[in-house]
Records
---
Amino acid sequence: MNPDPQKRVVPRPEPLPEPSPVKAPRGKGGRPKKADDDKRTMAIQVRLKPASYAYVQGIAEQRNSSMADVIRELCNGDVTVISAEQEALLRQIATMANNLNQLARKANTDGMRSVALLVERRAQELGELLDRYAK
């Protein structure tokens, strides 16, 4: 029993159970679902002649995409192939545009008079190339 009447014995309370972590409801993450008509569910296998295969492969390499993407674009009519002459013209135009940019930079540092004639000449050449490309 209690040896000291002045002291009262208080029973030790039982420890409370650890609270379980409550997870907050989350939204559904990830990529949105596609509509049924947007899903690629059909597959085909096609045999090509070596020339046709090389053609599709060349377009894929030029566009830095897969051959399957190129064929899908061909089916949708989205592929435009440029000729070697058009590609050469585009390369010339890019070079001339770079030259004009360099001349403009020089004009900003040296003054407009020093490069006005050069810029005008290059602009005429660029206009002629654009006219040839538009035909």
---
Amino acid sequence: MRTTPILAAALLLAAALVGCLEPSPSSPPTGPIAFETVEKGQGSGVEDRKALEIRNDTAVFNLWVRHDPATNDHPDPPAVDFSQKTVLAVFEGLDASTCRSAEVTNVTGLDNGTIQAEWNLTPVAEEACEGGNGSAFHMVAIDRYDAEIAFVLED
């Protein structure tokens, strides 16, 4: 009778140890990581040049309040399943001196277990900037990993 609880405890411990030996699905792969555009354009209300990772509905809502002033045509934040995805968002910031496009160009899993997201700002024709109002932005979704994300603005 006393062996049943001990046997059950031993089986639970063995199962836990086996789980520790398997690679974690939340670790990013080394090398290129696929991404898809969630939204891209001109006219963001985000005033500062910045790059953000968004991992939950609260964070995307808080960003959307700044990103989408009432005058823009973006009524609701994009629908993202944050149990499966993380959103990477880059913003040019308000800079009336030039007209540029913001773009995430590459997402890579590094050997140290972090993710590096490269982005750039590329000059575009003035008419693409809707009169220079607002900043360029690009939001992409990647598979969700429990990893630090570093953004690199390319020259």
